[in-house]
Structures are given as C-alpha cells and as structure tokens.
Amino acid sequence: MRRPRQLWSGATVAVLLTAGLLTGCSPSSSDNSADAARTCAQTPNGTPVAPGGPTASGGNIATNPEIATGYRSNMTPVRTRTFAASTANPLSTEAACKVLAAGGTAADALVAAQMVLGLVEPQASGIGGGAFLLYYDADRKAVDAYDGREIAPAAATENYLRWVSDTDRTLPQPNARASGRSIGVPGVLRLLESVHADHGRQQWKDLFTPAITMADQGFSISPRMSSQIADSAHDLARDDNARAYFLQPDGTAKPAGTTLTNPAMAKTLGAIATDGPKAFYTGAIAQDIVDTTATTAGGRTPGQITLADLAGYQAKKRTAVCTDYRTHEICGMPSPSSGGITVGATLGILSNFDLSALPPDHLDRNGGKPKARAVHLISEAERLAYADRDKYVADTDFVPLPGNSPNTLLNPDYLKKRAALIDPDHSMGTAQPGDFGPVPVGAGPQQPEHGTSHLSIVDEYGNAASMTTTVESAFGSFHIVDGFVLNNQLTDFAATPQAPDGTPVANRIQGGKRPRSSMSPTLVFDRNPDGSRGQLSYVTGSPGGAVIIQFVVKTLVGLLDWNLDPQQAVSQVDFGASNTPVTGLGGEHPAIDATANGDHDPLVQQLRAMGHQVSVDQQSSGLSALKRESDGWIGGADPRREGAVMGDTK
C-alpha cells in the first residue's frame, strides 16, 4: 500500500522550480524526516568545457545533427532510493522529479517534463512535434509501446517533398525543410494523453503549472540553446514569430543568460491544461497551425495540413519489439521506428562474439577508451543491421515487413548468418541487405536525420518510462505558432519515391503515413532461470538522429558486456557506423586525439588499417541510463549535453 503523503500543488512546484536550480528542496522541512531525502536538487557534476561549434570541416549532418556543445569530464553517477528522472535539461529533470516526489507516476512526470522541455530546449522537442514511448507497468508486468509519430497530411503525394506540384516540378521554397511541406501533424500531445489516461495518478491540468509559470515569469537561455540559436539564426529570421522570440533586433542570437518569456506559450499550455489535447487539435490553435503551415510569406511553398488532418490524429499503442541478448531481454520501439529492430538486430549479431573479452582500456570516469577490435565488430554488426533497416523498415500500416513480422529480421539463425559475413580483420565498408525473396520495395537514398531529446524515468511504484521526443531538425521547420515550434518531421521520408530500378521505396511519403524513425527508447529486463521475463534492470535512450541506434548500442554493450556503471556507459566514446564506409569516433571525448583529423590517435590508426574510413567529428548524443540496484537506482546523463539525473538521492 502506498504510504500517505502531502501532495504539492502545481503552483508550489513551479515556485520551487524557479527558486533556484542548485538550492534543492524537499517536501519536508525536517532533515530527520523519512521524506527528507526526497529532494530534487542538482549539484555540479563534471568539469565543463567551452561549448564547441560545428567541426572544422563544417560538420557532417548525419553524425552531427545538432550543434556540438563540448564534454563535461569526470561526471559521477547519481544514486537514488525509490525514483529517478533524467532529461536533457536540469529544469525539465527537476519538474519530473518534483512530480515523482509528490507521489506521481512516471506517466505524470513525462507530461510535466515535456512541457518544460518545449520551453528550455525548443530546438529539440515540444508540443509541435512527436515522440515514441516505452512504458513498463509494474502491476501488470507489461510493456506498452506508444506511437506519437507525426503523420503526413492526407493530401500529400509521393512527390510532396520533391516538387511543388506535378505540373510545377520546381523544388519547394526556400527548401523542403523550411517550406510548409516538411511539417507533419504533431503527435506528442495525443501520446501523453494516452499514457496519462492509462497510467497517471495526478490531475492532467496540474502537470502544466510548472511550464506555464516558467513561460510567464521567464527562464534563462542556456548556453546550449543560445549556441543553437546562433547556428540557426539565418533560418529563424525568415519567420516573424521566430525572429522576434529568438533573435535580437540586429538579427543576432539572444545570448546565454537572457531571461526569455513566452506569453503565447503560456496561453497555449493553459488551454491544453484546461480542455485537454482537443484544445490543440481543434479550434483556434488548430486553425493557427493550418494557417502557419500554409503561409506563402517570403516566397515559401505552403504545406497542405487541414483541420481534418489535425482532428483525426490518433496516437497508437503497438507491440514492443523484445529480443534476447546474453542473459537479458531488450525491448525497443516497433515500426514506424526502426530503433527496436535495428538495435535488436545489431545485438543479435554481436551475441555471436565474446565482447566481454574486449573491455575498454584505461577505464576511468569517462568510460575509458574502446579497443579497436570492439569498435570494429560493433560497427560491422551495425552496418549489416542498417542495411536491412534501410531497405525493409517503414510504417507497417503501409508497408509490411518481411514475413509480416519483425521476427524475420531478428531470427537468431538469420543473424548468425549475418555475423558470419564479418571479417575479423577488415571492414566490409557497405553491407548488402538480406535476401527475403521478391518484395515490393527498394532501397532509396538514406535521408539525413537529426536531433531530438530523451527522457528516462522510474517511479516509486516500479513503473518506468523511456521516451524519445523530437521536432526533427534543430528548431524543426523554423515556423513558430502560438509560442511553439512546428516540426519538419516529413523530411524523414525519402524525398525520391523510387529506387534506381524503379521499385517503390518503403519509406516514401504517402498521405496519412508516418515517416520512419531511428528513435530507440529501450527497456532491459533480467531473464529468470526458466526463461521468463524477470525484473526491470535498465532504462535508456538517446537523441541524435540516425545515429541514435549507435549511441544506444554502445551504451547497452557498456552496461551488459563491460559492466560499466550508467555514467561510464553514456560517457564513453561515441562510436559506430551506419551502412557506409565511415566509422564515427567522437572527437569531443578526452580519450580521442582529434587533431589533424585523428591522424595521431592510435585507435584511429588501427581502425584505418582495418579499412575503416574514420571520422572524428564531434558527436552530439544525449544519452541517459538508469540501472536498478539492490537498494535503489543509479543513473547517468550524457556529458555532451546539459542533462541531469535527479531523484530521492542517497
């Protein structure tokens, strides 16, 4: 039975949030009370470095989806007793933590945290975007997968992103992303409504109070947000609302430390808090979204979202993709995300190798330095998994998977054959997809995917949430309406609908379809001796576009094969490969010598000798990981962003 406690009002939570991030707070004024440890304070963790910009080469859009902002060296894990939250921004983490401390569930905490993230990290996520969520219900011992992915408007044709119309075959202006064509029907609010109805305990309206108060009273622009505004200033200036909100009169970015208020967002959130998501999907806000999408201001090509598209949007509950790895069960997100299948396939291939014999060298608080053999095997496994992903995975409501099931691509015998294709001494460069006989799809050019945000939360009741949320690229489509950023999610579709041989591309755009994603929210369970699902043991995920899969794989290997603690696992070098000859090795990490394109780094030299084309561009992962211990939880947040872990700390 849950013990009684005094619940805080939303207004009290908001006051505590804005009172000062590092001062901490507790439901009890007595340090000797049972609840005195239920604080949500953050203390400085790690040694920050000056924010970095794009790499000297200009950055690789596929591996550097958001601006690089340095690395906090020597971060230490956070240990908590009964609940924990990790998000990409301390103010968002604190909002989630306060809800948990007041007796809320992980579902309640998600709502509060996402609303705050939309203010303090608008370049990555918000109510104008979408999300994927895995939720563990401890009472039912079941995993629910929630799909809040954006959808293409009903009027979209397969050439919607390719040209203005079938009679006007010119490119959308000023480009596909910044035109109205990139904007999909947002889904995150319907997702949150669904999970809150299923698993929430606190009142929906109260969960909006921290964000509403912050929007009204103001918050400080973080260094990361300021850097991203500066990087995107040219495109933000095209939109009147974005220019007024993010830029100074001379067109430069508002600097870090500037107090930013957003009365339009406060009004929007107030309506949604009172009337629920219908206030967003119908009525005045919906009309504003339609009008903003359809604008031709500045010569922009309009999008074709209608009021019917918005009113008809539904979040979907799907079946999680769960596979075995060593002594654990890994659960990920199914289609239209490719994350669960591709992470599962990579690990299934790697299960044929003894990675425990290849731990990092010089293990320290930053996760040490990976061995060349380990990077080689993991990267090759990823190439094989991405090859199948690129060809076969899309929205299964439109394009069936081989065998009409993810199990075809995840069959252990099939993955053992894939593993046999790996040369232990030389990279394959580019892998070929598996052959599943005649299929009505082709492998089109891979679209560059971009940055997102991630939340990992566990509550005192044993429930857990892993949610990856996004507006797609930094600041989405650069359109702002009623205080929030509209996504550019439709650019995750393949712009060219046919492969060179003329067969349709699985991930081509179609009306009502959801674009393929790489988002990989992940839950890990122990296996009982009889093979049944045991207790929840890990919660993890990351932003990062197409490389999310690689970030999650390296973290899972670190946790499960190398016995790293969660902070070491997320702090370790970001490495891996999509299905190209390029292997990424994050040059922001202190263990990597990125000078002269990595030419002097021994690990880079060894990999190049094995045929890898190594890139040492800075990576921009935003990982979090929570691990169950016998007496609570231990968590880590990515040193490459500004996230934090909080809970009822020990």
N- to C-terminal distance: 23 Å
Q: Please report the number of helical segments.
A: 18
Give the overall pLDDT as a whole number.
89
Number of E strands = 20
Which overall shape is indicated by the principal axes computed on the Cα atoms?
globular
- Into which percentage range does the β-strand content fall? 15-25%
Broad structural category: alpha+beta
Radius of gyration, in angstroms, nearest whole number: 23 Å
Helix content, binned percent = 25-40%
Sketch the major β-sheet. Answer: 13 strands, antiparallel
Low-pLDDT segments: 1-37, 49-64
Report on this model:
By secondary structure, the protein is α+β, with helices and mostly antiparallel strands. The chain has a domain at 72-314 and 449-492. It is 28% helix and 16% strand. It has 18 helices and 20 strands. Strands 1, 2, 3, 6, 7, 8, 9, 10, 13, 14, 18, 19 and 20 form a 13-stranded antiparallel beta sheet that branches. Helix 3 packs antiparallel against helix 4, helix 12 (339-350) crosses helix 15 (412-419) and helix 13 crosses helix 18. It is globular and about 60 Å long. The model is unreliable at 1-37 and 49-64 (pLDDT under 50).
